[in-house]
Design brief:
This protein is α+β, with helices and mostly antiparallel strands and about 230 residues long. It has helices at about 1-25, 30-35, 50-60, 65-75, and strands spanning about 80-85, 90-95, 100-105, 110-120, 125-135, 140-150, 155, 170-175, 185-190, 195-200, 205-215, 220-225. Strand 1 (about 80-85) and strand 2 form a beta hairpin. Helix 3 packs antiparallel against helix 4 (about 65-75). The longest helix has 23 residues, at about 1-25.
Length: about 230
Amino acid sequence: MKKCFLIILITLIACTTAIGQNMFSGSTDLEVIANEWESITLKNVPNGSLVTMLDCFNKKWPTWMLSSAVKTMKKGVEGRDTYNNDQIVVRNKPKNGFVQVDWWGDAERKEFMRACYWKRSNGHRLLGIYFGGTDKYPNIHFVCFYDYDMKRHTLTPEPQIIDGFRTTEDRKFYYDLPEEGKELQISEFGERGHFIHTFKWDGMKPVFSETVKIEEDNGGEHYGEEEE
């Protein structure tokens, strides 16, 4: 009985590993995307729906995360979790213009993606795609912001939106794209402590509003302006 159990366990582990390897095969390293996205405008984007914009991005930089998101979104799955092989979790909220993807199959490799868009007052759309991972590049976290032009059918990078809130050796930033509402929040961790930076939507972009310092006793110290 014990021998049979071990054989089954080994088989399950082998299958999980194979699924993970196949899934990651051909997926663009996150470091490559982080280094390239700011300088490349994506063209021939038919419309400003979230699935179409993500599909266009994925054709330039293929990842298992965006492939999973686009596949699920095209099926029209709404408002619930979708499990593929019990490893990939895709949560699609089309009415809110939000989708997220997580991988739970390997403790040594954690990658995720969050994406949303805002409707701009000039008729354009602002797309945000947040990538994070702890595989080859520990704690790599970054957001790709694009302006979608309905007339030109282009996605133009807008990296300046996150100026001053990018991860360095001393300060780590984690981005909370809005699943509900329009506010963007960024968590900061570093020698100065733990801070929550809130950005409110002004019709064109998230604009810095306030910073709250999170104390160890779960209290909070409020700051009216961001400290540099």
